[in-house]
Amino acid sequence: MLKEYKSVQEVVGPLMIVEGVEGIKYEELVEIQTQTGEKRRGRVLEIDGDRAMIQLFEGSAGINLKDTTVRFLGKPLELGVSEDMIGRIFDGLGNPIDKGPKIIPEKRVDINGSPINPVSRDYPSEFIQTGISTIDGLNTLVRGQKLPIFSGSGLPHNNVAAQIARQAKVLGDDAKFAVVFGAMGITFEEAQFFIDDFTKTGAIDRAVLFINLANDPAIERISTPRMALTCAEYLAFEKGMHVLVILTDLTNYAEALREVSAARKEVPGRRGYPGYLYTDLSQIYERAGKIKGKPGSITQIPILTMPEDDITHPIPDLTGYITEGQIILSRELYKSGIQPPIFVIPSLSRLKDKGIGRGKTREDHADTMNQIYAGYASGREARELAVILGDSALSDADKAFAKFAENFDKEYVNQGYETNRSILETLDLGWKLLKVIPRTELKRIRTEYIDKYLADKD
Predict the structure, then answer these.
(1) What is the pLDDT of residue 174?
(2) What per-residue confidence (pLDDT) applies to 171?
(3) DSSP state, 155?
(4) H/E stretch holding 374
(5) How does strand 89-91 pair with strand 207-213?
């Protein structure tokens, strides 16, 4: 039986205190009816005796304590899921906003879900082609992995996200592929960019979009990634699809957590973020992966902007602990006009070795990846040395590496946002660039691969 109360005692920011409650459960969904008859939603955040703290999704403006009715619905926040969600656009609470018909759900699912049990996890090993050389060739994404993109304010992470959403596919697998896109706290202009890009390129036909705008209540931001992941879990583990989940921007999500934490008067942690930020982020990231015996999978690419480009900031710092690597966008490369400005030296995919090689990409992938990385690092060092001491201080090998680094930025990294390179095109381009380095310096590639592939590029 639904319980209804008119005992609102206090409203502080996005939080409401109700007294005299009985039998209320944590995370229970709440309906609030204001004095004007307007209905808003919330959820139970905390229970202390007969007092309940409610988190309001639509904000607290205009609420009259005396005349407000609170109804506890006896169930958590749920999402109605169906395959018909593919190709549709929803708000952060799962309501359609694309002027299409309402979704008739196959079933309703609690959005809080749970991380995948480590015992039932299957090890990620299948290569996912994003069409971006710096990712496919050097920081390979594999099915079931969590690989975040660390960006900065003003950098083109939206373009990179849209490009991955358009181009990503699993090679050699007939299973259906879908993209679930969750946006938190983005501007209307950014939202329109994604909608237009997905629609124009046809990517919308295999995508589900959940969009929370910057002028929507901050509290809705906490639900948006969970809505997206609930949809992804349904498509992956019940419909057998390979699902790529792109979440942007996790920094806005963490700011919403901090706002709620401050309203609850909790003791702040680093930089004012709640002490449970690590736990909260892990509950999102650990819902990605593969489950033994099930054909579907969830691969996750969270995107976050590092405040002041500080990689030691709590959000990227904690994210790095939980996920399997990071792709880092460089302001230096961006100012040089390189698109996408992915800086490969600090970027890392900890599972890249599992998704490459014979039968997955090509036999020479691991060797060329190591050689290109080493050559690029040596080339950047040589360029820095030339700035200090002049070109005359460089050896012939140093000059070759410096030339390689210059060509690498211009041709390999700077592919633009519309170019979709296959993994074979990426590997062939790597060999073409390696020609400028003397063979005696190619110490990380087996001789048989040099004889086989470098000769083809002469």
Answers:
(1) 66
(2) 79
(3) S
(4) helix 365-389
(5) parallel
Q: With a cut of 70, say whether residue 173 has pLDDT above it.
A: no
Output the six-digit token pair for 71: 């109804």
Q: Does the domain at residues 78-354 carry the CATH identifier 3.40.50.12240?
A: yes
**If one looks up domain 4-72 in CATH, what number appears?**
2.40.30.20
Query: Domain extents for the chain?
Result: 4-72, 78-354, 364-454
The token duo for 184 is: 């938190």
* 150 three-state secondary structure: strand
Residue 458 has pLDDT above 80, yes or no: no
- Residue range 220-226: mean pLDDT, rounded: 92
Cβ atoms within 10 Å of 1's Cβ, excluding its own:
5
Dist CA 324 CA 288 (whole Å): 11
Residue % of the chain over a pLDDT of 70: 98
Query: Do the two domains 4-72 and 78-354 of this chain adopt the same fold?
Result: no
Backbone angles phi, psi at 69, to 5 degrees: -105, 135
Distance CA 56, CA 285 (A): 25
Tokens of 216: 């929507």
- In this predicted structure, the answer to whether residue 53 has a pLDDT above a threshold of 70 is yes
Give the DSSP letter string of 280-321: HHHHHHTT-EEETT-S-EEEEEEEEEEGGG-TTSHHHHHHHH
Residue where the block lists tokens 């736990």: 279
DSSP 170: E
pLDDT digits 0-9 by tens, 112-166: 888 888 899 999 888 999 999 999 999 999 999 999 999 999 999 999 999 999 9
Spatial CA neighbour of 191 closest among 161, 163, 211 = 211
Gap between the Cα atoms of 240 and 431, Å rounded? 37
Report the distance separating Cα 87 and Cα 51, nearest Å.
43
Give yes or no for residue 304 having a pLDDT over 70: yes
Q: Average pLDDT of the chain?
A: 91
Contact 64, 34 (CB under 8 A): yes
Check residue 274 and give left, alpha or beta (phi > 0: left; psi -120 to 50: alpha): beta
- Other residues' Cβ atoms within 10 Å of the Cβ of residue 340: 26
Contact 217, 57 (CB under 8 A): yes
Q: What is the pLDDT of residues 265-286, one digit of tens each?
A: 889 999 999 999 999 999 999 9
Q: Max alpha carbon distance in the chain (Å)?
A: 85
Alpha-carbon distance of 250 to 322, in angstroms, equals 14
CA dist 306 and 300 (Å) reads 19
Question: How many residues are given for the chain?
Answer: 458
DSSP alpha helices (H): ranges in 97-187? 133-136, 157-167
